């Protein structure tokens, strides 16, 4: 059975940003203080608490530039945080009522017909349905309101 595994951005990428490297637009991440409520860190997959410093940056969750390689804003804790351990349970940042779930092929391009706004309580079920399709290699979870990248969902064979 394919078990959907929620996955955060890689630690090596987060480390480069924490050390002052530029983002996907070749700009330094902006720094700000979290006002609280809805500022999700894409590395620990937790909300950034009110008063904590954070980074705002352009992120492209794809290995190379191509027409489907969407780039958009994300937040990271300004100080290093522990990466979310890839697992089957819905991460703490996914606290909105719904999200866009969309499939991508081995070529990192959208698999047409796979994207849909999905209620949060159905994310795992929808991920199982999509990952059962041979044409889909992985999924993105994106904000249903702003299309911002939240996390990735991959398959894990568990027997």
Describe this structure in words.
- It is built from two helices and eight strands.
- By secondary structure, the chain is mainly β.
- The chain is 11% helix and 31% strand.
- The mean pLDDT is 95.
Report helical residue fraction: 10-25%
Number of domains: 2
Structural class: mainly beta
Average pLDDT works out at: 95
> What string, H for helix and E for strand, traces the elements in order?
EHEEEEEHEE
Overall morphology: globular
Q: Strand percentage, roughly?
A: 25-35%
Give the CA-CA distance, first to last residue: 7 Å
Strand runs, count: 8
Strand order of the largest sheet: 1-8-7-5-6
- Sheet with most strands: 5 strands, antiparallel
Radius of gyration: 15 Å
Number of helical regions: 2
Poorly predicted spans: none
